[in-house]
Amino acid sequence: MNPGSVFDAGVRSRAGALDLIGVDEAGRGPLAGPVVVAAVLLGDGLADELSGVRDSKRLSHRQREALYLPIRRSARAIAIAWSHPRQIERLNILRATLSAMRRAVLRTLRFSTRERRPFVLVDGNRCIPDLPAPQMAVIDGDDRSLAVGCASIIAKVFRDRCMARLDRRYPGYGLAQNKGYGTEEHLRALQRLGPSPIHRRTYAPVQELLLPV
Question: How far apart, in Å, are the Cα atoms of 125 and each of 1, 27, 29, 119, 128?
Answer without folding.
Answer: 26, 17, 17, 16, 10
